[in-house]
């Protein structure tokens, strides 16, 4: 089917304002503003409100010891699958990194090209609640590591109905 010029115009000028519920946008912006102003206190408040879990400020960061314990608790076959997935995603993303810098002379004296560099820091959100999603972490974290992002922060919600524990996988 062919679109009319008017139909095409509507799609092309579509903005997030028209796509997303404005009440939701304002709610999220309120959370962002609260975290900017109040830091961890705002995060603790949101965790209590949205996840129904009251955490202490010391429970917001996962320690290396907790990561080691979680790794030990995950089934060896699952860990092997995670390792294989990371290797595959890394191999794919390494090809992107390797081809990220190029130049070509498209006419005498006219050079074009691309130069890509890692951004300074990223924040990654890994959901949980309706299941375990290590694949999300793999597909977000591995490209960041492969690209050489120096600062990577991962945020994940606590498991539902728990005491602040997070998905071990």
As residue ranges, the low-confidence spans are none
Q: How many helices?
A: 7
SSE order: HHHHHHEEEHE
| N- and C-termini, Cα separation | 46 Å
| Helix proportion range | 40-55%
Strand order of the largest sheet: 1-2
Gross morphology: extended
Tell how many strands the DSSP assignment holds.
4
Structure classification: alpha+beta
As a whole number of angstroms, the C-alpha radius of gyration is 22 Å
Instruction: Note the main sheet.
Output: 2 strands, antiparallel
Summary tags:
alpha+beta; extended; 7 helices; single chain; 12% strand; two-stranded antiparallel ribbon; 4 strands; two-stranded parallel ribbon; 169 residues
Write the layout of secondary structure elements.
Blueprint: H1 5-12, H2 16-19, H3 22-38, H4 40-51, H5 64-73, H6 76-98, E1 102-107, E2 110-114, E3 121-125, H7 134-147, E4 151-155
Parallel strand pairs: 3-4
Antiparallel strand pairs: 1-2
Helix pairs in contact: 3-4, 6-7
What can you see in these coordinates?
- With 169 residues, the chain is an alpha+beta fold.
- It has helices at residues 5-12, 16-19, 22-38, 40-51, 64-73, 76-98, 134-147, and strands at residues 102-107, 110-114, 121-125, 151-155.
- The chain has a two-stranded antiparallel ribbon. A two-stranded parallel sheet has the order 3-4.
- Helix 6 (76-98) runs parallel beside helix 7.
- The protein is extended and about 65 Å long.
- The chain starts with a helix and ends in a 14-residue tail after the last strand.
- The model has no long low-confidence stretch (mean pLDDT 91).
